[in-house]
Design the sequence.
């Protein structure tokens, strides 16, 4: 299981939690499991999210590997100027 | 291919102040910008814009315009495709309005004619019947329940019900218990701030030339930060297959985020499709101000608690941003960046976006961060003043470090904030005396930095030179930096390499030049492309020598035998291998395609001295020093240029620049006479101090540098002005009338 930290405004769509556990080994599996377990998160996931794995920010890396001890933080999809 | 897995290397080319590959072209006028492209039979396009900030379009009658001699085509929003995702539909409706006009200057129709004069005359013949609606341009007013609704039904699911329909987005970040933190503080300050919308101010207006044939194949030349993004947007808006549209980026006269989207390009394509002739559109400066992206305007509340010793016990911020008349997600980046410089046990930020009758926001360097960090750093400075603490020591005491849980969630890897603060502390600027009426300001700044999708092709020419094809318009010196990294990896002189920028039909996809990504991500790709080419050259040499490829290594620009069984052969240089390439298997090239990650966040610290004229309220910037962790500086001139340029844009944002609207939402200052950007005579020399703390995510330790420098100036200058004036300024810009008013109120 991987602990995924959500940002605060997603809490109402994850049963009031900001940290949820899912069974996942990759970025994509995290998104799939989150959308399955908490359907209210699906619209945000479909609009786009970033993910920080052990401090490194990924934007669309489906196959980025996640270890059980990884720090996984969901973030809004990031853009720059 | 992380930095810490690479062998230590003494750079030979990277780090040198090499000649600019675009220098001669730009100073002699040979460089071709967006407006420089022409085609046989070309028509000129012009765009009719709304005189109202908010109105329903009852009807558009183009009959008289079409009948005017010399007019070849007229288009409206009805000429664009219907089906596309919501974000692209917003871009489409910003290019030509559908149903309603949403801000003063919103495009309504366009004409292509034999000359610009005829096209402009035809605009006067287009009859648009409007039903004028109430408008709102202030973000706080727009969030009120009784505000005019700019667009209904645009709120995402996270927005609580019962708010104004203008509220489209909401976010919250942070950890810990802020209330407990405030209770533990010796002093808590709670302040509200506003920042005006500012324009990116690029010197080159938007310009393009579109040519579509009767078979539907089209070419588009334009000034842009990303030709693939232009192709994606335009092909969707025109209902074309992407393969049938080739987009070529011109030389670019500044973008700063404002050229990451499209405004006139789909319009020119639609006109060309209708007229069957090439169509060129060049925006006037007034159009650039009225209808292209300024940054968000904001209203921000910040509350911070601090102990007598200077430890921050808690911080909260509520950010209300408006990205204009269309939904905008910039506030989420501001809310994440606001407290990023600090190691806090309790922090919470809340972000809201509201629609207003303003132009659609476009990105501006580090979008969303300067406003948020301005408010936070202003309160930190006021706490330091009231507790009689050194503002730099307080920032060192609270600085985020490797292992800090950031205010937006992830734990930081190696970061350079502490080193940057120490550099500022040790610099003579920080200890220099100030005269009466002068003040010194300090601020930290932060930006995330990104990598992104990148394709690079590298060819070994038969004369031993190297050509690189990459896909990101060169805004900040990337052609030089990319050539340097290729030369470094291949072991050849910089002068042997030329980097060119491809059109969308000549290379795989590249994301736009944004997020401080190009030197990092394209550099990473060119290093990998060079290693791909090296592997192929070593394989050729192995066959020539009759040994295993593993027994050949690449050292200082030549293949050499290595290992006990390799035998003895004289090194073969890149030029020798290239000259034999047709005989040894054909042309040699390397390439690399990837979605790069590991860009690594960036921190900077700015120090500024100002003098405030108490009679006029005018502020003079006396001294300015920028400190930034740049990772490995590939071409230090360009890195310094980014740091200085960010400071200058921030000075303008802090002191003078603002979109001014009247009560009906009309923009009153759409030109550089009334929208005042800093000019050379306004500025002191800006000293740039580069700290090279290697980015662990890049083989040379490179980190993006382009956006962080615009983040600290707002607060640094506000803190300096507030200390010089003896009164805390809480609204940007700190224009002379606003400073004078604060001084007068002070008595």
Sequence:
């Amino acid at each position: 299981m991987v602990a995924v930290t959500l940002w605060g405004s997603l809490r109402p769509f994850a049963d009031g939690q900001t940290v949820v556990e899912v069974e996942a080994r990759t970025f994509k599996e995290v998104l799939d499991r989150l959308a399955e377990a908490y359907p209210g998160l699906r619209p945000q996931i479909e609009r786009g999210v970033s993910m920080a794995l052990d401090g490194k920010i990924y934007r669309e890396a489906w196959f980025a590997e996640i270890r059980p001890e990884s720090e996984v933080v969901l973030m809004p999809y990031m853009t720059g100027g | 291919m992380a930095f810490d897995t690479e062998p230590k290397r003494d750079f030979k080319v990277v780090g040198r102040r090499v000649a600019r590959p675009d220098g001669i072209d730009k100073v002699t006028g040979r460089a071709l910008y967006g407006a420089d492209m022409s085609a046989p039979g070309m028509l000129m396009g012009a765009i009719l814009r709304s005189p109202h900030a908010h109105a329903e379009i009852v009807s558009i009658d183009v009959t008289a315009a079409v009948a005017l001699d010399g007019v070849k085509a007229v288009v409206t929003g009805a000429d664009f495709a219907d089906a596309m995702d919501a974000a692209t539909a917003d871009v489409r409706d910003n290019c030509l309005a559908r149903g309603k006009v949403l801000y003063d200057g919103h495009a309504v129709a366009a004409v292509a004619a034999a000359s610009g004069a005829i096209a402009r005359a035809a605009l006067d013949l287009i009859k648009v019947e409007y039903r004028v609606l109430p408008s709102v341009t202030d973000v706080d007013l727009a969030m009120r329940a009784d505000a005019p609704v700019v667009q209904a039904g645009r709120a995402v699911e996270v927005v609580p019900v019962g708010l104004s329909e203008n509220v489209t987005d909401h976010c919250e970040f942070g950890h810990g218990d802020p209330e407990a933190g405030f209770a533990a503080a010796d002093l808590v300050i709670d302040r509200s701030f506003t920042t005006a919308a500012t324009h990116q101010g690029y010197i080159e207006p938007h310009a393009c030339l579109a040519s579509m044939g009767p078979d539907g194949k089209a070419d588009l030349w334009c000034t842009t930060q990303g030709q693939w993004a232009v192709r994606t947007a335009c092909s969707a808006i025109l209902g074309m297959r992407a393969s049938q549209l080739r987009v070529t980026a011109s030389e670019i006269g500044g973008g700063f985020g404002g050229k990451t989207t499209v405004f006139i390009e789909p319009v020119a394509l639609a006109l060309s499709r209708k007229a069957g002739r090439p169509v060129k559109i060049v925006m006037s400066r007034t159009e650039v101000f009225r209808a292209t992206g300024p940054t968000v305007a904001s209203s921000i509340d910040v509350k911070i608690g601090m102990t007598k010793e200077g430890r921050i016990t808690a911080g909260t911020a509520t950010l209300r941003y408006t990205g204009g008349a269309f939904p905008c997600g910039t506030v989420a980046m501001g809310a994440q960046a606001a407290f990023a410089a600090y190691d806090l046990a309790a922090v919470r930020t809340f972000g809201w976006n509201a629609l207003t009758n303003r132009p659609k926001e476009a990105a501006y360097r580090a979008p969303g961060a300067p406003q948020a960090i301005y408010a936070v750093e202003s309160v930190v400075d006021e706490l330091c003043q009231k507790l009689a603490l050194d503002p730099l020591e307080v920032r060192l005491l609270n600085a985020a470090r490797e292992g800090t849980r950031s205010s937006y969630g992830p734990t930081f890897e190696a970061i350079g904030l502490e080193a940057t603060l120490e550099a500022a502390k040790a610099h003579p600027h920080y200890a220099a005396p100030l005269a009466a009426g002068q003040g010194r300001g300090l601020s930290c700044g932060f930006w995330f930095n990104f990598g992104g999708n990148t394709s690079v092709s590298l060819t070994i020419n038969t004369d031993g030179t190297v050509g690189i094809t990459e896909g990101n318009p060169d805004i900040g010196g990337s052609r030089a930096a990319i050539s340097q990294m290729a030369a470094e990896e291949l072991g050849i002189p910089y002068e042997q390499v030329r980097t060119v920028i491809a059109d969308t039909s000549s290379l795989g996809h590249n994301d736009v030049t944004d997020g401080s990504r190009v030197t990092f991500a394209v550099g990473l790709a060119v290093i990998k492309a060079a290693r791909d080419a090296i592997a192929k050259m070593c394989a050729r040499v192995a066959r020539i020598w009759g040994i295993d490829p593993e027994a050949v290594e690449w050292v200082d620009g030549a293949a050499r035998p290595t290992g006990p069984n390799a035998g003895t052969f004289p090194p073969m240089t890149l030029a020798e291998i290239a000259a034999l390439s047709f005989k040894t298997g054909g042309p040699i090239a390397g390439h690399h395609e990837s979605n790069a990650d590991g860009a690594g966040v960036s921190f900077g610290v700015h120090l500024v001295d100002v003098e405030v004229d108490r009679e006029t309220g005018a502020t003079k910037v006396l001294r300015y020093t920028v400190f930034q962790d740049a990772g490995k500086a590939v071409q230090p001139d360009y890195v310094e240029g980014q740091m200085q340029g960010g400071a200058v844009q921030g000075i303008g944002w802090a002191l003078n620049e603002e979109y001014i609207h009247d009560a009906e939402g009309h923009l009153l200052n759409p030109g550089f006479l009334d929208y005042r950007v800093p000019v050379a005579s306004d500025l002191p020399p800006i000293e740039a101090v580069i700290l090279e703390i290697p980015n662990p995510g890049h083989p040379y330790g490179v980190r993006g540098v382009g956006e962080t420098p615009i983040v600290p100036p707002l607060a640094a200058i506000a803190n300096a002005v507030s200390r010089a004036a003896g009164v805390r300024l809480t609204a940007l810009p700190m224009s002379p009338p606003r400073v004078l008013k604060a001084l007068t109120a002070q008595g």
